Amino acid sequence: MLYYRLYVLERGGHVVSAIAFESEDDAAAIAFAEARGEPRAMELWNEARRVKAFEARGAGSQANTPWSHQLRSPEGAHSPSPRRNTQNRSPPSVSS
Question: CA-CA distance, 56 to 87, in Å (whole number)?
Answer without folding.
Answer: 54
